[in-house]
Description:
- There is one protein chain.
- The protein has 125 residues and is mainly β.
- The chain is built from no helices and eleven strands.
- The strands form two sheets. Strands 2, 4, 5, 6, 9, 10 and 11 form a seven-stranded mixed beta sheet that branches.
- Strand 7 and strand 8 form a beta hairpin.
Amino acid sequence: xxxxxxxxxxxxxxxxxxxxxxxxxxxxxxxxxxxxxxxxxxxxxxxxxxxxxxxxxxxxxxxxxxxxxxxxxxxxxxxxxxxxxxxxxxxxxxxxxxxxxxxxxxxxxxxxxxxxxxxxxxxxx
Length: 125
């Protein structure tokens, strides 16, 4: 049974940093593309970042480019999202997702097979 468990969310002031983690189990982590999505109150879920299996190419939404960094540790079956220079508009529930599908856009929810339960991030102004 595949499980994705996010952690690291919380309350932070504008300009602060957080690091989210997503621990995966029940799958061969190294061959999965991993993604982060977020859903703000009253809005649809949106793509944040993705990292492919080797050679770990990374992809970012324009809104977070230069502030967020996605990385993975295959030995720990974990993907990370380092979030710096946080803004109030980054407030959302952040979800981890996994896929083995080779086709389709990294930016699309439909490409991803497995999802975590989410972790809350609140950025105060």
